[in-house]
Amino acid sequence: MLNSTTDVYATKREIIKFAEDLVPKTNRVETKFVTQMLYGMLKSKSTILKKISTALNEPIQIKNTIDRLSQNLMKSFSPTIQKNYTRKIVKSLGEKPLILVDDSDVIKPHGKAFEALGRVRDGSSKDNKIEKGYHVTEMVGLTSKKKQPVSLFSRIHSSAEKNYKSTNDVLFLGLNQVIQSLSERATFVFDRGYDMNALFQFMYKEQQDFIIRLTEKRKLFWKGKWFKAATLRDSRKGKIKTNLTFREDGKVKQETVYISHLNIKITASKKPVNLVLVYGLRNTPMMLATNQPIQGKDDAIRVVRTYMSRWRIEEYFRFKKQHFGFENFRVRSLTSSINNLNQLLTYAIGLLGLLTEK
């Protein structure tokens, strides 16, 4: 037998076993549906139901397969599925899990019939123009061995939804779910879009480690006085030299940077926070706030490198959109079909991450 054929059967077995572990054994219909969707997505590299149905190659009219998948996609999933999936993913993260948090978007410029289609900033366009689409809040962990990004929380949402509160409401919903699933303290990495007092207070309350990139509007308390973050940043120079390797725009880059650190306080809490300043990476030095202890240059370098690992979540977004064409989905109901499809794609990519670990 050809090795390629053996690999196909081995992959099928992995998908079936993975789906059976997720779905309650009493629900055979849901088990079959999840298995077929995962297999169809991975084989077709698509989230379009017609392509998924074609990949299943059932001995019936393809229209009937599409109808069946569409009807099941409209139904609410058993809550146990997400719990079982999260349990599997958390095991792969190892000790001291690293969680990357970021927002993305799904652009539907020509969409007319999609439910609660809002207006979002197209992050892939050079001029960040506003288009019709949805927000996506994602929380990704990195596997312990291969550092593969695997999602723990993914939610598509829109300000046009009925009873919608805010993106922060979705953020804290996701953080609560992820933290409850973890068995130990983790480190959460946030970009500067998350620099807000409510997040600092939340992370202290939940007793989790964090690295948050600060904006220039932030005020910092240092040596008995309040300073604008930019003023404090520009008054210092980096004394610790190190090299950073990271990926940007699909290319691996290496830069020599200089790091400085000092102990400060912020308006959100009286607790001390370490401010890490990074010079040489961009025209504007980077400011990172963390509650992780910094006792010397090795700790400061570790914080910077941990933050720079956030490019893995950007790769995750790119893989999701380019490899599976996620922005091309045709289902229209946000509250059911779109988020259910997103959830199933999350499981499919999670399975790939777990297989890579093996």
Q: What coarse outline follows from CA principal-axis ratios?
A: elongated
Mean of residue pLDDT? 93
Q: Determine the N-to-C terminus distance.
A: 23 Å
User: What fraction of the residues are assigned to beta strands by DSSP?
Assistant: 25-35%
Number of strands: 12
Radius of gyration: 22 Å
Task: List the secondary-structure elements in sequence, H or E.
Answer: HHHHHEEEEHEHEEEHEEEEHHH
Count of helical segments?
Answer: 11
Structural class by SSE content: alpha+beta
Poorly predicted runs: none
Q: How many strands, what sense, and barrel or not for the largest sheet?
A: 12 strands, mixed
Which percent bin holds the helix content? Answer: 40-55%
Report on this structure.
It is a single chain. With 358 residues, this protein is of the alpha+beta class. Helix content is 42%, strand content 26%. Helix 7 links the parallel strand 5 (187-190) and strand 6. The radius of gyration is 22 Å and the shape is elongated. The chain starts with a helix and ends with a helix. The model has no long low-confidence stretch (mean pLDDT 93).
